[in-house]
């Protein structure tokens, strides 16, 4: 038998609000891993509010115990997703103990969640529903929440030295927002002994709203548009808007020079390079033009070469704002770190986006590093420019 708790409207509103915010952020950047993780976080938080309602409304101890076990499991998975999200903004940083081994991290979080859920024994009822008849689950959960808060602070401390200005404000905002649910939950569990309602989802809603604001407000991982003019000392190939070009040359210099030439004509540019950004800025006298470094070591203005989805998100959002120049150096590096079909799909989607938006795509490659098949596919998709 189910008798809805007097707090049922609050639980339902909390669940719907969280999922609505997550859906809105996902629509703002469906290709962004950050937006996707946030959407997953809101789904888990919304499901938690529904389970809170079930624990407060079910009439059978057995059913309530099952619902509470699932609630504990979902809560710990939610904490795992929230911490993983904290390592992604404002730039990716390696996780303590696990580094970049996401599978090991996910397996550990799942194991802890299972162990915690199985630790729940009998249940007793009070005016707000069912609670465990032992303090052990709450004590263990409190320890986990404190460990979660410690991990958030540790991650913030590890990346703090490499942050400046806006990035520091972003890091503080996201860390504090993701810490709110744990702090509120610890307080709620403490106050529930004094007869206060157990509405754990209030902290989650505040957190979700703050993170959603941060993602939309700061438009994470979308490069800024700037205009710079640079002096060139030799002529460059003539390029047309709405076209994609393949520079088959031993060095990417001609491609970058062509991009700089288009910048002198008033277009904004975005560079994705295997060459370190400091070298490119010094060579072409670039001050503000966004440059992303393809590198496996985490840090600001870097993207792991295996993260093709992030590159797609950044480039498509950049060109959708106005006609732009996208210069890609390091195609060979992308092919080494990804399945060939995945890289070709990325190039094909980017080419189509450039054509539709009236932008220019420049891709540099050393033909000596390609197989005949790879070269044939690229030359079919892109207009070839040679020495």
Description:
The protein is of the alpha/beta class and 387 residues long. The chain has two domains: 8-218, Rhopdopsin 7-helix transmembrane proteins; 243-386, P-loop containing nucleotide triphosphate hydrolases (Rossmann fold, 3-Layer(aba) Sandwich), CATH 3.40.50.300. Helix content is 58%, strand content 11%. α9 links the parallel β4 and β5. The longest helix is centred in the middle third of the chain and has 27 residues, at 166-192. It is elongated and about 80 Å long.
Provide a short characterization of the protein structure.
By secondary structure, the chain is of the alpha/beta class. 58% of the residues lie in helices and 11% in strands.
Task: Give the helix/strand layout.
Elements: H1 8-28, H2 33-57, H3 61-86, H4 102-118, E1 123-126, E2 129-132, H5 136-160, H6 166-192, H7 201-218, E3 243-248, H8 253-264, E4 268-273, H9 277-284, E5 291-294, E6 302-303, H10 308-319, E7 324-329, H11 331-337, H12 340-357, E8 360-365, H13 372-381, E9 383-386
